């Protein structure tokens, strides 16, 4: 039995072992140094509500990203509720595979912020304060984008963390822009004076819909008014690898964050214009290993298959979301019915790019060919 456990530990580090690995600690990644690197544009997988769980993070880490965020964690719930701690954050020593791991927090006071950091600082590389979430429920509690209208409180949180931890804890703030861009400039200057490590600017206002274009001119203007020793990351409308360089050059920023584009294509930063099949096999593997809720896996697969090549027909995609899909077992049965799904350990696992159909009618392309 001990030999089997050792083999699992060496070859399949994502598995939950029957004893705690207390003799190991996480090898920290210097995220700030990565962002400050003048020779490259830092590529960042941003936080997604519910969907940036460890299974998705590890899938993204197989491709050419540098930093990966957790979903936003509500600090007050996390420090007060055992179930919140169990469900909202999970990781292991191999999670994100030497990419930077950042925990984003929804918080509105320094006490909750510091208590949460104390719980999590040994399990991640940096923290982010969410001042960019436009969801009304969060804003009503002075969490998310509403914080940009409370600059004193936001700056006070940053100052308290940096005074307590100094260089031990790296801290980012993600913001949206004000209608008056100079207000955003003043907020950023205050955060810089409080020793924030870097700022991520989403190029939309608090009430701007995602269907409206990202305002890169606003990000460029704000960047030009700030000290150059303050790294700035641009967020918004990054959907493929070409967008990374375009956005960075246009705005003059050190890093670019993608969110919606990564949900459809976790391999985007590796230059894929579609989701490669290898990414689908990887997220299935990690979801089973980590126990991701089947509904989250179902949504991930619907987004990814809908962006794959050759793309499944709408009828086949609809079957994935059918009410008969009630568990991860049902999802695996669905995948095995229409696709050649390799398991971890099988020859060819996570190597293929194009979708390997075993039912010709599953793809529009093959259906057209069969009718000729």
Automatic annotation (TrEMBL):
Keyword NAD in record: yes
GO molecular function, one term: tRNA-dihydrouridine20b synthase activity
Domain DUS-like FMN-binding, first and last residues per copy: 45-320
InterPro entries: Aldolase_TIM, DUS-like_FMN-bd
Record's keyword terms, sorted: NAD
Keyword NAD: yes
Gene3D superfamilies in alphabetical order: Aldolase class I
Record protein name field: Related to tRNA-dihydrouridine(20a/20b) synthase [NAD(P)+]
Organism: Hanseniaspora guilliermondii
